[in-house]
Amino acid sequence: MDKEIVVVFGSSRPQDGSEEYSESRKLGSMLADAGFIVSTGAYRGVMEAVSRGASETGGHVIGVSCDQIENMVPGLQVNQWVTEEIRYSDLRGRLHHLVEKCSAMIAMPGGIGTLLEIAYAWGFMQCEEISRKPLIVVGKTWFDVVNTVVEQDNYVEESHKMLIHAVDSVEKSLKVLKKLDKT
User: Fold this and answer.
1) Domain residues of the chain, as ranges?
2) Model pTM?
């Protein structure tokens, strides 16, 4: 049986030495140690940290890169921890690949891009554009965002609330992932 791929989303801003970078690196290591293939957006910040943690643990790392991003940010390169690169010309192709070609998704802290990735995955699972799979969001910001959306009267069906799981630590994200993987 093929190994399952877990995609990790997150900010490109965290630097080596920051808490966000360290937690993301730990997540990558934990995922690889649990036998998952790790996939990220290929660049810096959370993507680099997760890739680094997985690679240092002997894991396989897929980086999904994009010409459009590299044209927007001169000098940007795929991080050195990526084992296998998959390249798209535009953001749409890259994003759809990330949410479709995986068994689960974990979103670390991030900004507009990470919010887009979460909403895209959640929305596409809701309307069955992509298969249903674990979508786990880590941290208080995402916990608050998810709760704000799901607590509104009559806007989100119960079955759609169950498509996303908010946790407060990388350790809990792995516990949820393993629990959902058994069901």
Assistant:
1) 5-182
2) 0.96
